[in-house]
Amino acid sequence: MAPAVKQMSLSTSLKNDIENRLAVKIKDTSAVSGGDINQVYRLDTSSGPFLLKVNNKDAFPGMFAHEAQGLSAIRQTESIAVPDVIYQGYAGKESYLLLEWVETWYPSDKASKNLGRQLAAVHEHTAEQFGFHQDNYMGSLPQKNNRHNTWSDFFVEERLKPMVKLATDAGQLDAKDQESFDQLYEKLPDLYPEEPPALVHGDLWSGNYLISTKQQPYLIDPAVSYSNREFDIAMTALFGGFDAAFYKAYNDAYPLQTGWQGRLKIWNLYPLLVHVNLFGGGYANQVRQILAAI
Q: N vs C: which end of the chain shows fewer Cβ within 10 Å?
C-alpha cells in the first residue's frame, strides 16, 4: 500500500499471536507512512507480505472490527475492490487488523475512470432507511448510525448534532454558531432532492483509496453507512485528489441530480466538524463560512 519507510519491531505478544494464528513466520517488519491514528506496518512473512494495523484496544474499542465489517459491506456489492481481511484480533492491550498487501502505483486516466464508475456502482446499493446496522468511527471519533427514514433526520441527528455538541463543549464553537446550526436544521429538508439511501464509503478523501500496479482502484479505511450519495462526492472535493475523469465517469454511470455542486458544502460540514474536534485551528472558521453562505 503506502511505501515502507523504516524497520520496526512488534511487541512479542503481537508477533507470537500473528505467527501462531496464521501459521507463518514474520521475517521483516517495516513501518508504513500514512497512519494517523494507528501504527501501520508491512509484514514480510513466509506466506508473503501483509498490511498490519495496530492500536490500543481500550482507546479505540471495536475500531478494527467495525473497519473489517465496513470493508465486507463494500466487498459484498461486488462493485469495487477492497483489501482482503486476513484476521482481526487482540494481543495483550493491542488490537490489530491484518489485511492483504496491495502493491500501489500512480493513477492513470483509466484508473480514475474506473474509480468513478465503480463508486457509482457501490452507490446503487440501497437500503430501506438511512443508517447502518452498527456504529463505527470517523477517524478516531465514534460515529453513530441509528436508522432514520429521511436523509435530513439522519444527517442532523447522527452526524451534525453530535459533532456540534462536542465542539461547543470544548469551546471551539459558541452560542451564535449553535444558533446558525439550528437554523440550518430547519431549512435542510428543502435544500436537496430526496434519493434512496445509498451505501457510502463515508470518509472518501484521497488517502482512502489506492490504485494497484494493475491500475485497479481499492477502497480502504471505510466509515460506511446508507446515506445520501452526494456525501461521498462532497468528501472527494474537500481536500482534492480526484480528477475530472473521476467525476465524468461517475456522472456517466449514475448522474448526480441538478445542483449537486452547490450542495457539497452542506455535506462537508460534517467532516469539517470532525476536524474541528480533532485539530481545532481554522476549521471552525471554515464551518462558519459555509453556514453564512447557506
A: C
Structural domains of the chain in order of their starting residue, each with its CATH number = 4-100 (3.30.200.20), 109-293 (3.90.1200.10)
The rounded distance, in Å, linking the Cα atoms of 70 and 172 is 31
Instruction: State yes or no: is 36 an active-site residue.
Output: no
Q: Tens digit of pLDDT for each residue in 35-59?
A: 668 999 999 999 999 999 999 999 9
Mean pLDDT over residues 196-213, rounded? 97
pTM tops 0.85: yes
Q: Which of 17, 153, 203, 232 is catalytic?
A: 203
Is 144:250 a contact under the CB 8 Å cutoff? Answer: no
Closest alpha carbon to 29 in 47, 49, 56, 13: 49
234 vs 93, 192, 203, CA distance in Å? 37, 14, 10
* Distance from C-alpha of 284 to C-alpha of 5, rounded to nearest angstrom: 34
Query: Where residue 268 falls among pLDDT bands split at 50, 70, 90?
Result: very high
- Given its phi and psi angles, is residue 244 left (phi above 0), alpha (psi -120 to 50 degrees) or beta? alpha
Burial zone of 171 (CB within 10 Å; 0-12 exposed, 13-18 middle, 19+ buried): exposed
Q: Cα angle vertex 178, ends 200, 232, to 5°?
A: 10
